[in-house]
Specification:
The chain is elongated, with a radius of gyration of 60 Å. The protein contains twelve helices and no strands. It has four domains: 135 residues, no CATH class; 87 residues; 39 residues; 34 residues. Helix 6 packs across helix 8. It is mostly helical and 368 residues long.
Protein backbone atom coordinates (compact mmCIF):
# COMPACT_ATOMS: atom_id res chain seq x y z
CA UNK A 1 0.00 0.00 0.00
CA UNK A 2 1.32 3.43 -0.99
CA UNK A 3 1.77 6.40 1.27
CA UNK A 4 -1.24 8.19 -0.24
CA UNK A 5 -3.47 5.17 0.35
CA UNK A 6 -2.26 4.92 3.94
CA UNK A 7 -2.96 8.60 4.48
CA UNK A 8 -6.47 8.29 3.02
CA UNK A 9 -7.33 5.31 5.17
CA UNK A 10 -5.87 7.07 8.20
CA UNK A 11 -8.05 10.06 7.39
CA UNK A 12 -11.18 7.95 7.19
CA UNK A 13 -10.37 5.47 9.94
CA UNK A 14 -9.16 1.94 10.22
CA UNK A 15 -10.57 -1.54 10.29
CA UNK A 16 -14.16 -2.41 9.51
CA UNK A 17 -15.36 1.22 9.86
CA UNK A 18 -13.73 2.25 6.55
CA UNK A 19 -16.54 0.89 4.43
CA UNK A 20 -19.22 2.52 6.59
CA UNK A 21 -17.43 5.88 6.39
CA UNK A 22 -17.12 5.62 2.60
CA UNK A 23 -20.82 4.83 2.32
CA UNK A 24 -21.63 7.75 4.63
CA UNK A 25 -19.54 10.07 2.43
CA UNK A 26 -21.52 9.03 -0.69
CA UNK A 27 -25.09 8.37 0.52
CA UNK A 28 -26.55 8.77 -2.98
CA UNK A 29 -24.47 5.93 -4.43
CA UNK A 30 -26.13 2.55 -4.70
CA UNK A 31 -23.32 0.66 -2.95
CA UNK A 32 -22.99 -1.92 -0.23
CA UNK A 33 -20.13 -3.00 2.01
CA UNK A 34 -19.89 -6.20 -0.02
CA UNK A 35 -19.33 -4.15 -3.20
CA UNK A 36 -16.53 -2.20 -1.52
CA UNK A 37 -14.89 -5.30 -0.07
CA UNK A 38 -14.93 -7.03 -3.48
CA UNK A 39 -13.46 -3.94 -5.21
CA UNK A 40 -10.71 -2.51 -2.96
CA UNK A 41 -9.27 -0.26 -5.68
CA UNK A 42 -12.65 1.33 -6.23
CA UNK A 43 -12.91 1.86 -2.47
CA UNK A 44 -9.54 3.66 -2.52
CA UNK A 45 -10.81 5.85 -5.36
CA UNK A 46 -13.86 6.84 -3.34
CA UNK A 47 -11.66 7.63 -0.34
CA UNK A 48 -9.58 9.97 -2.52
CA UNK A 49 -12.67 11.61 -4.05
CA UNK A 50 -14.18 12.25 -0.63
CA UNK A 51 -11.45 14.85 0.02
CA UNK A 52 -12.47 16.86 -3.07
CA UNK A 53 -16.27 16.49 -3.27
CA UNK A 54 -19.15 16.71 -0.81
CA UNK A 55 -21.88 14.17 -0.17
CA UNK A 56 -23.89 15.38 -3.20
CA UNK A 57 -20.95 14.95 -5.60
CA UNK A 58 -20.09 18.66 -6.06
CA UNK A 59 -16.50 19.88 -5.92
CA UNK A 60 -15.56 22.23 -3.11
CA UNK A 61 -15.06 25.37 -5.33
CA UNK A 62 -18.33 24.69 -7.10
CA UNK A 63 -20.02 24.17 -3.73
CA UNK A 64 -18.69 27.59 -2.60
CA UNK A 65 -20.02 29.30 -5.72
CA UNK A 66 -23.32 27.48 -5.34
CA UNK A 67 -23.63 28.69 -1.72
CA UNK A 68 -22.98 32.31 -2.81
CA UNK A 69 -25.56 32.02 -5.57
CA UNK A 70 -27.99 30.48 -3.09
CA UNK A 71 -27.48 33.38 -0.67
CA UNK A 72 -28.04 35.91 -3.46
CA UNK A 73 -31.14 34.04 -4.56
CA UNK A 74 -32.45 33.97 -1.00
CA UNK A 75 -31.89 37.75 -0.71
CA UNK A 76 -33.86 38.41 -3.92
CA UNK A 77 -36.49 35.96 -2.82
CA UNK A 78 -36.93 37.72 0.53
CA UNK A 79 -37.29 41.08 -1.19
CA UNK A 80 -39.82 39.67 -3.62
CA UNK A 81 -41.74 37.92 -0.85
CA UNK A 82 -41.78 41.15 1.16
CA UNK A 83 -43.25 43.15 -1.72
CA UNK A 84 -45.60 40.34 -2.72
CA UNK A 85 -46.80 39.93 0.87
CA UNK A 86 -47.45 43.67 1.13
CA UNK A 87 -49.33 43.64 -2.18
CA UNK A 88 -51.51 40.71 -1.09
CA UNK A 89 -52.19 42.34 2.28
CA UNK A 90 -53.38 45.51 0.54
CA UNK A 91 -55.62 43.48 -1.75
CA UNK A 92 -57.11 41.67 1.26
CA UNK A 93 -57.80 45.03 2.93
CA UNK A 94 -59.62 46.18 -0.20
CA UNK A 95 -61.66 42.98 -0.39
CA UNK A 96 -62.64 43.21 3.27
CA UNK A 97 -63.71 46.81 2.70
CA UNK A 98 -65.90 45.73 -0.24
CA UNK A 99 -67.54 43.09 1.96
CA UNK A 100 -68.15 45.60 4.76
CA UNK A 101 -69.85 48.01 2.32
CA UNK A 102 -72.49 45.38 1.54
CA UNK A 103 -73.35 44.71 5.19
CA UNK A 104 -72.87 48.05 6.94
CA UNK A 105 -72.48 51.76 6.33
CA UNK A 106 -68.88 52.92 5.78
CA UNK A 107 -67.76 56.50 6.54
CA UNK A 108 -67.05 58.57 3.40
CA UNK A 109 -63.42 59.26 4.31
CA UNK A 110 -62.73 55.55 4.80
CA UNK A 111 -64.47 54.76 1.53
CA UNK A 112 -62.30 57.37 -0.24
CA UNK A 113 -59.19 55.91 1.38
CA UNK A 114 -59.83 52.40 0.03
CA UNK A 115 -60.94 53.60 -3.40
CA UNK A 116 -57.73 55.64 -3.72
CA UNK A 117 -55.62 52.67 -2.62
CA UNK A 118 -57.40 50.36 -5.07
CA UNK A 119 -56.84 52.74 -7.99
CA UNK A 120 -53.17 53.15 -7.07
CA UNK A 121 -52.67 49.38 -6.96
CA UNK A 122 -54.35 48.89 -10.32
CA UNK A 123 -52.31 51.65 -11.98
CA UNK A 124 -49.04 50.34 -10.54
CA UNK A 125 -49.89 46.80 -11.62
CA UNK A 126 -50.67 47.96 -15.16
CA UNK A 127 -47.48 50.02 -15.34
CA UNK A 128 -45.46 47.01 -14.21
CA UNK A 129 -47.02 44.91 -16.97
CA UNK A 130 -46.35 47.60 -19.61
CA UNK A 131 -42.78 48.35 -18.52
CA UNK A 132 -40.47 45.72 -20.12
CA UNK A 133 -37.91 44.19 -17.84
CA UNK A 134 -34.29 43.40 -18.62
CA UNK A 135 -35.19 39.79 -19.44
CA UNK A 136 -37.86 40.57 -22.05
CA UNK A 137 -37.64 41.89 -25.60
CA UNK A 138 -37.76 45.71 -25.40
CA UNK A 139 -38.86 45.93 -29.03
CA UNK A 140 -41.98 43.88 -28.27
CA UNK A 141 -45.13 46.02 -28.87
CA UNK A 142 -46.97 47.17 -25.74
CA UNK A 143 -50.40 45.89 -24.81
CA UNK A 144 -53.09 47.82 -26.75
CA UNK A 145 -50.40 50.27 -27.77
CA UNK A 146 -50.34 51.86 -24.30
CA UNK A 147 -47.34 53.48 -22.70
CA UNK A 148 -46.62 53.53 -18.96
CA UNK A 149 -46.93 57.34 -18.89
CA UNK A 150 -50.43 57.14 -20.33
CA UNK A 151 -51.52 54.77 -17.57
CA UNK A 152 -49.92 56.94 -14.86
CA UNK A 153 -52.28 59.73 -15.81
CA UNK A 154 -55.11 57.63 -14.35
CA UNK A 155 -53.66 57.97 -10.83
CA UNK A 156 -55.97 59.66 -8.28
CA UNK A 157 -55.34 63.24 -7.29
CA UNK A 158 -52.13 63.91 -5.42
CA UNK A 159 -54.08 65.16 -2.43
CA UNK A 160 -56.01 61.90 -2.08
CA UNK A 161 -52.82 59.90 -2.60
CA UNK A 162 -50.99 61.79 0.15
CA UNK A 163 -53.96 61.38 2.49
CA UNK A 164 -54.04 57.66 1.72
CA UNK A 165 -50.29 57.34 2.29
CA UNK A 166 -50.56 59.02 5.70
CA UNK A 167 -53.32 56.66 6.90
CA UNK A 168 -51.96 53.53 5.21
CA UNK A 169 -49.36 52.53 7.86
CA UNK A 170 -51.96 52.60 10.62
CA UNK A 171 -54.55 50.63 8.63
CA UNK A 172 -51.92 48.18 7.41
CA UNK A 173 -50.65 47.67 10.95
CA UNK A 174 -54.18 47.02 12.16
CA UNK A 175 -54.80 44.51 9.37
CA UNK A 176 -51.51 42.68 9.93
CA UNK A 177 -52.10 42.63 13.68
CA UNK A 178 -55.47 41.04 13.10
CA UNK A 179 -53.93 38.39 10.83
CA UNK A 180 -51.16 37.70 13.33
CA UNK A 181 -53.66 37.23 16.14
CA UNK A 182 -55.67 34.88 13.91
CA UNK A 183 -52.48 32.92 13.19
CA UNK A 184 -51.71 32.80 16.91
CA UNK A 185 -55.18 31.43 17.69
CA UNK A 186 -54.79 28.90 14.89
CA UNK A 187 -51.49 27.63 16.31
CA UNK A 188 -52.79 27.73 19.88
CA UNK A 189 -56.60 27.44 19.99
CA UNK A 190 -56.51 27.43 23.79
CA UNK A 191 -55.38 31.10 23.74
CA UNK A 192 -58.41 32.32 21.81
CA UNK A 193 -60.25 33.58 24.92
CA UNK A 194 -57.24 35.53 26.26
CA UNK A 195 -57.16 39.31 26.29
CA UNK A 196 -55.71 41.24 23.36
CA UNK A 197 -52.73 42.52 25.38
CA UNK A 198 -51.88 39.00 26.48
CA UNK A 199 -52.18 37.79 22.90
CA UNK A 200 -49.83 40.54 21.73
CA UNK A 201 -47.32 39.51 24.39
CA UNK A 202 -47.51 35.89 23.30
CA UNK A 203 -47.33 36.96 19.67
CA UNK A 204 -43.76 38.17 20.16
CA UNK A 205 -42.71 34.54 20.82
CA UNK A 206 -44.61 33.11 17.86
CA UNK A 207 -41.82 33.75 15.33
CA UNK A 208 -39.28 31.92 17.51
CA UNK A 209 -41.68 29.03 18.00
CA UNK A 210 -42.41 28.81 14.25
CA UNK A 211 -38.69 28.91 13.52
CA UNK A 212 -38.12 26.17 16.10
CA UNK A 213 -40.88 24.05 14.56
CA UNK A 214 -39.39 24.64 11.11
CA UNK A 215 -35.93 23.53 12.27
CA UNK A 216 -37.44 20.50 13.97
CA UNK A 217 -39.29 19.65 10.77
CA UNK A 218 -36.10 19.97 8.72
CA UNK A 219 -34.27 17.83 11.24
CA UNK A 220 -37.01 15.22 11.00
CA UNK A 221 -36.79 15.34 7.21
CA UNK A 222 -33.04 14.72 7.35
CA UNK A 223 -33.59 11.90 9.82
CA UNK A 224 -36.25 10.41 7.57
CA UNK A 225 -33.90 10.67 4.59
CA UNK A 226 -31.12 8.91 6.49
CA UNK A 227 -33.49 6.22 7.65
CA UNK A 228 -34.78 5.83 4.09
CA UNK A 229 -31.26 5.31 2.78
CA UNK A 230 -30.55 2.85 5.59
CA UNK A 231 -33.82 1.07 4.91
CA UNK A 232 -32.97 0.76 1.21
CA UNK A 233 -29.58 -0.75 2.04
CA UNK A 234 -31.11 -3.16 4.52
CA UNK A 235 -33.80 -4.04 1.99
CA UNK A 236 -31.21 -4.87 -0.65
CA UNK A 237 -29.25 -6.93 1.88
CA UNK A 238 -32.41 -8.71 2.98
CA UNK A 239 -33.39 -9.47 -0.62
CA UNK A 240 -29.95 -10.83 -1.43
CA UNK A 241 -30.07 -13.10 1.63
CA UNK A 242 -33.61 -14.11 0.77
CA UNK A 243 -32.54 -15.08 -2.76
CA UNK A 244 -29.74 -17.19 -1.30
CA UNK A 245 -32.20 -18.93 1.02
CA UNK A 246 -34.58 -19.58 -1.87
CA UNK A 247 -31.77 -21.13 -3.93
CA UNK A 248 -30.75 -23.31 -0.98
CA UNK A 249 -34.34 -24.37 -0.50
CA UNK A 250 -34.67 -25.23 -4.18
CA UNK A 251 -31.53 -27.36 -3.94
CA UNK A 252 -32.88 -29.20 -0.91
CA UNK A 253 -36.18 -29.82 -2.66
CA UNK A 254 -34.55 -31.12 -5.84
CA UNK A 255 -32.13 -33.37 -3.93
CA UNK A 256 -34.54 -34.91 -1.45
CA UNK A 257 -37.92 -34.71 -3.15
CA UNK A 258 -37.70 -38.14 -4.88
CA UNK A 259 -36.73 -39.99 -1.73
CA UNK A 260 -39.34 -38.28 0.34
CA UNK A 261 -41.93 -38.82 -2.41
CA UNK A 262 -41.18 -42.58 -2.50
CA UNK A 263 -41.62 -42.91 1.25
CA UNK A 264 -44.74 -40.83 1.09
CA UNK A 265 -46.22 -42.93 -1.71
CA UNK A 266 -45.46 -46.13 0.20
CA UNK A 267 -47.17 -44.78 3.31
CA UNK A 268 -50.14 -43.67 1.23
CA UNK A 269 -50.34 -47.15 -0.38
CA UNK A 270 -50.28 -48.85 3.02
CA UNK A 271 -52.92 -46.47 4.23
CA UNK A 272 -55.21 -47.10 1.26
CA UNK A 273 -54.72 -50.90 1.53
CA UNK A 274 -55.69 -50.81 5.18
CA UNK A 275 -58.64 -48.59 4.38
CA UNK A 276 -59.73 -50.97 1.57
CA UNK A 277 -59.54 -53.99 3.89
CA UNK A 278 -61.57 -52.13 6.45
CA UNK A 279 -64.23 -51.30 3.85
CA UNK A 280 -64.37 -54.96 2.67
CA UNK A 281 -64.78 -56.20 6.24
CA UNK A 282 -67.50 -53.63 6.81
CA UNK A 283 -69.32 -54.81 3.65
CA UNK A 284 -69.13 -58.43 4.82
CA UNK A 285 -70.43 -57.42 8.22
CA UNK A 286 -73.34 -55.58 6.59
CA UNK A 287 -74.14 -58.64 4.42
CA UNK A 288 -74.18 -60.87 7.49
CA UNK A 289 -76.47 -58.40 9.28
CA UNK A 290 -78.81 -58.35 6.26
CA UNK A 291 -78.89 -62.16 6.12
CA UNK A 292 -79.56 -62.39 9.83
CA UNK A 293 -82.40 -59.86 9.51
CA UNK A 294 -83.83 -61.64 6.42
CA UNK A 295 -83.53 -65.37 7.30
CA UNK A 296 -85.08 -65.99 10.70
CA UNK A 297 -85.28 -69.59 12.16
CA UNK A 298 -88.96 -69.92 11.10
CA UNK A 299 -88.14 -68.77 7.56
CA UNK A 300 -85.23 -71.23 7.38
CA UNK A 301 -87.42 -74.15 8.49
CA UNK A 302 -90.11 -73.18 5.94
CA UNK A 303 -87.48 -72.94 3.21
CA UNK A 304 -86.22 -76.38 4.18
CA UNK A 305 -89.73 -77.87 3.83
CA UNK A 306 -90.18 -76.11 0.51
CA UNK A 307 -86.82 -77.43 -0.61
CA UNK A 308 -87.77 -80.99 0.37
CA UNK A 309 -91.08 -80.71 -1.54
CA UNK A 310 -89.34 -79.23 -4.58
CA UNK A 311 -86.68 -81.93 -4.49
CA UNK A 312 -89.35 -84.69 -4.27
CA UNK A 313 -91.29 -83.12 -7.17
CA UNK A 314 -88.06 -82.77 -9.11
CA UNK A 315 -87.32 -86.42 -8.47
CA UNK A 316 -90.79 -87.50 -9.65
CA UNK A 317 -90.49 -85.30 -12.73
CA UNK A 318 -87.15 -86.78 -13.55
CA UNK A 319 -88.64 -90.33 -13.21
CA UNK A 320 -91.59 -89.34 -15.44
CA UNK A 321 -89.14 -87.84 -17.92
CA UNK A 322 -87.16 -91.09 -18.00
CA UNK A 323 -90.40 -93.08 -18.52
CA UNK A 324 -91.51 -90.85 -21.38
CA UNK A 325 -88.08 -90.93 -22.94
CA UNK A 326 -88.24 -94.76 -22.78
CA UNK A 327 -91.63 -94.79 -24.53
CA UNK A 328 -90.38 -92.36 -27.14
CA UNK A 329 -87.43 -94.58 -27.75
CA UNK A 330 -89.75 -97.59 -28.20
CA UNK A 331 -91.94 -95.59 -30.55
CA UNK A 332 -88.95 -94.55 -32.62
CA UNK A 333 -88.14 -98.25 -33.10
CA UNK A 334 -91.50 -98.83 -34.89
CA UNK A 335 -90.52 -96.56 -37.83
CA UNK A 336 -92.24 -93.92 -40.02
CA UNK A 337 -95.52 -95.86 -40.44
CA UNK A 338 -96.23 -95.70 -36.73
CA UNK A 339 -95.41 -91.97 -36.76
CA UNK A 340 -98.10 -91.38 -39.44
CA UNK A 341 -100.60 -93.36 -37.39
CA UNK A 342 -99.69 -91.37 -34.29
CA UNK A 343 -100.28 -88.11 -36.14
CA UNK A 344 -103.64 -89.31 -37.47
CA UNK A 345 -104.57 -90.45 -33.95
CA UNK A 346 -103.62 -87.05 -32.61
CA UNK A 347 -105.85 -85.31 -35.17
CA UNK A 348 -108.77 -87.60 -34.35
CA UNK A 349 -108.31 -86.82 -30.62
CA UNK A 350 -108.38 -83.11 -31.33
CA UNK A 351 -111.61 -83.47 -33.40
CA UNK A 352 -113.18 -85.54 -30.64
CA UNK A 353 -112.25 -82.93 -28.03
CA UNK A 354 -113.64 -80.14 -30.24
CA UNK A 355 -116.96 -82.00 -30.74
CA UNK A 356 -117.19 -82.75 -27.03
CA UNK A 357 -116.68 -79.07 -26.24
CA UNK A 358 -119.36 -78.07 -28.81
CA UNK A 359 -121.77 -80.68 -27.42
CA UNK A 360 -121.14 -79.41 -23.90
CA UNK A 361 -121.79 -75.86 -24.91
CA UNK A 362 -124.92 -76.81 -26.78
CA UNK A 363 -126.20 -78.78 -23.79
CA UNK A 364 -125.59 -75.83 -21.44
CA UNK A 365 -127.40 -73.44 -23.82
CA UNK A 366 -130.34 -75.86 -24.15
CA UNK A 367 -130.71 -76.24 -20.44
CA UNK A 368 -130.93 -72.50 -20.05
Amino acid sequence: MSFVDSANITLFGKGDTLHQQVLASFPLCDLTEEDLSQNPQFCKLLVSLAQHVDSTGLTLPLKTELDKAEQKLQSHRRNWLRSQGLFLALKEMIQEHCVRKHYSTVPPDQNMFYETMEKCLLVVQCVRMLDPSSTTDKEQPNILGLEPQQVLQLMPSEKNVQRMQRGLPKELEKHLKKKCLSLLCYCHPEWENDSENLKCTKLSHLAGQVDKDKKRTESLKESVLEKTVLLQRQTRLYLSELIKCIKLLQTLILDHRLKIQTDLDKKKLDYFEGKCDLVVQKIKSELVDIQLDTYTPDAISAHRKMRENLESELKSCQEEKQHVEFKLASFELLGKEFQALAEEYSKLRQQIEMKNWALKEFTQYKNK
